[in-house]
Amino acid sequence: APIGRSVSGHMNVLFIVIDDLRTTLGCYEDPLVKSPNIDQLASRSTRFQNAFAQQALCAPSRTSFLTSRRPDTTRLYDVGSYWRNHAGNYSTLPQYFKMNGYTTMSVGKVFHPGIASNHSDDYPYSWSMVPYHPSTEEYENRKTCKGKDGQLHANLVCPVNVTEVPEGTLPDIQSTEEAIRLLKSVQNSTEPFFLAVGYHKPHIPFRYPQEFLKLYPMENITLAPDPDIPKRLPSVAYNPWTDIRKREDVQALNISFPYGPIPKEFQLLIRQSYFASVSYMDSQVGKVLSSLDALGLANNTIVVFTSDHGWSLGEHGEWAKYSNFDVATKVPLLMYVPGLTSSFLKAGEQRFPFIDPFHLPQRQINRGLKTNIVVELVDLFPTLCELAGLAVPQACPEPSFDVELCTQGKSIAKLLHPDAAV
Amino acid sequence: QDNEAIAYSQYPRPADLPQENSDLPELEDIKVMGYSIRSSNYRYTLWVAFNPSNFTSDFQNVHGGELYLLQSDPREDNNLYSNHTFADVNKTLF
């Protein structure tokens, strides 16, 4: 087999998708957030500075980028329908890889759960085996947050002692364990694999191991630079962030509807816990990447890291996705392609050693490639096909409801080349 | 420019004014769709009437507009949609 390729001649794919992650990361020049493992991945990747989701809501965005069709073609703008029944029998990204001989596997939240993916994460169309969901997902919205009164509440801000929560673990920790188990199981397979890992955090509630709070002393937390609703913003553009209002700790603040505002002290708490959730998620990503490395798969596995959309951390008086603002639609997008964005590993070299965020000697300086070209998540499907050496689907005709396989994006593979990036 | 890199996004609303289901309107409640185009220089958004029964948008029925010049206003705080200076820009982007 050619260097870096599996026996079949195709590279493996590790597709990591995060829930509600904006570009608040060290590798995107955020001065506060500690994300050393994602930064390390960025240093071996091409980083897209201007990547955008098609809609700032989980189900429409995920359905869109997994089918490479825009919401007006999936006809999904909420969470209430399955595109194959509702719009067209569109092939998905993992389905296409499966059709081309890949073993495709899903861990955690990749498709949006429920009817949006037919209550099956689109299995068996998209996946070679039943998708994995952590058993502790069911506790995410339960009363598991210890309040000042010593009682358990369903709070927005929810740092926890992991040993005290149900089952003694959290969903993303379980997903990491399963992803590592699956990597071990396919390590010596003759078929290439496509492993998608979907992490829940930093989606609300901010339920994360409490030790990550130590990374963000309150004196370092600042308010959003533009916390007010812009004067000339049309009212239809504003979202009243109703989901966080339902959490017990936010309800207790008696915030007026629809414009608020949230008391400044609580704004700081929200921002602190969002950042802590990001660092917790970063550690989970780091563990998967270091396993990929340890298993000898870093030389023949493409790694894509992205998010379904962003989240407003108080900018424009908003605390949610649900808008067209850049903070809600811009996403991190990193693509690691061994031999292209980074040289092939030599014997004994480590590509993704785990970095403990609590023992950082100094802030890492990112030296990865980057591009400022505007790209979209619908571009992922054709791009991954090109990078993996599969035929790139044709551009969709207009309309394309009867076309099972086509793309409304375009391959951005050429932007990964060092000569094309900065 | 013809070869300018553009990203599209959209978001639905049930009404012009914020209400309980403004964040997550169900399909049958969607009355307005905000369509955005963005380049590295600007974001232009039109909020237009939307018919959920036939999935059509009426770009002659505009409920609101946004125009941000991202080089000078990267945080999108200064909506220039109604600024007469940019009438030609709005017309071109429309």
Could you characterize what this model shows?
The complex is a heterodimer of chains A (422) and B (94). By secondary structure, chain A is α/β, with parallel strands linked by helices. Chain A is built from 11 helices and 11 strands. A 7-stranded mixed sheet of chain A has the order 3-7-1-9-10-2-11, with helices on both faces. A two-stranded antiparallel ribbon of chain A has the order 4-5. In chain A, a hairpin with a 5-residue loop joins strand 4 and strand 5. The two termini of chain A are 32 Å apart. The mean pLDDT of chain A is 95. Chain B is mostly beta strands. Chain B contains 1 helix and 4 strands. Chain B has one helix spanning 87-93; strands at residues 7-13, 32-38, 42-51, 56-69. A 4-stranded antiparallel sheet of chain B has the order 1-2-3-4, with no helix packed on it. The longest helix of chain B is centred in the C-terminal third of the chain and has 7 residues, at 87-93. Chain B is globular, with a radius of gyration of 14 Å. In chain B, 35% of the residues are buried. Chains A and B meet through strand 2 and strand 11 of A and strand 1, strand 2, strand 3 and strand 4 of B.
Descriptors:
heterodimer, A: 422 residues, alpha/beta, 7-stranded mixed β-sheet, two-stranded antiparallel sheet, 11 helices, 11 strands, globular, B: 94 residues, mainly beta, 4-stranded antiparallel β-sheet, 1 helix
How confident overall, as mean pLDDT of chain A? 95
Q: What portion of residues of chain B is helical? A: under 10%
* Biggest sheet strand line-up of chain A: 3-7-1-9-10-2-11
Give the count of helical stretches of chain A.
Answer: 11
Main sheet characteristics of chain A = 7 strands, mixed
Largest sheet of chain B: 4 strands, antiparallel
Order of helices and strands of chain A: EHEHHHHEEEEHEEHHHEHEEH
What structural class should be given to the helix and strand makeup of chain A? alpha/beta
Shape of chain A: globular
The number of distinct helices of chain B, counting runs of at least 4 residues, comes to 1
Number of strand segments of chain A: 11
Tell me which oligomeric state these chains represent: heterodimer
Uncertain segments of chain A of ≥5 residues (pLDDT<50)? none
Q: Please give the radius of gyration of chain B in angstroms.
A: 14 Å
Strand adjacency order, main sheet of chain B: 1-2-3-4
Separation of termini of chain B? 14 Å
Greatest interface (CB-CB under 8 A), with counts per chain: A-B, 49 and 46 residues
